[in-house]
Amino acid sequence: xxxYHNLDIPSYMILLDNLEDSExxxxxxxxxxxxxxxxxxxxxxxIYAITEDINSFCQEFLSSExxxxxPIISSIPDNYNPFDLQVKHPEPIKEDxxxxxxxxxxxxxxxxxxxxxxxxxxxxxxxxxxxxxxxxRIEKMIDANLIQxxxxxxxxxxxxxxxxxxxxxxxxKNKQKILTTIRANNYSGFVYETHTGFFLWYMPPxxxxxxxxxxxxxxxxxxxxxxxMQSVDILKIETVPKAVLEIFKQKYQ
Length: 253
Prior knowledge:
Shape: globular
Radius of gyration: 19 Å
Order of helices and strands: EHEEHEEHHHEHEEHEH
Largest sheet: 9 strands, antiparallel
Distance between the termini: 23 Å
Number of helices: 8
Number of strands: 9
Strand content: 15-25%
């Protein structure tokens, strides 16, 4: 999982009441998005867009829709631990470190993003870097919080888990204590910070855990505003969109 903010590639959360079928198909087919979900709640569609020109994105893909748009100013990797495994929880949040990438770094990112499971020897053939150099460069990117997470993911819907997308409006002085509480909860997924609060995935066994979670947040912050939307369908997930791969390719050529 890449930290697009640390790569100076803007990303946005877009919430919509509706999408026409033709718009939906065009977005799924052509739009530079990380994810597209259908939900039940205040908003029916959630788009995580990754684009260097949000105005052009909206004109091309959302020209006939009303929507709310939130620039993502930071992303915090998930600590999802639904089975209460004995692991370090929550993991500490890494600081973003400014890293000046050269052409070899971008070439490595390009091939790693295209095929994350490639063995080092294959990456070496594709990048012209020796395995030791590849290991050191990846470690450098991880340390700078440019690569945030390397992990396998289970299809939680197959085991009866319900996924909610939660929007939190929070006054700035309360952000840190709310974030601490979010990350200590076993059912919390990735958290995305905006200027007005947080978005996060919350994936409990039932609605009862969501109810308790929101009550805890409201107890901590009397001014917090919470909107929870239940995800009913994953329409598209592309952890590194083709548009981002093209940026990497341009930077190493």
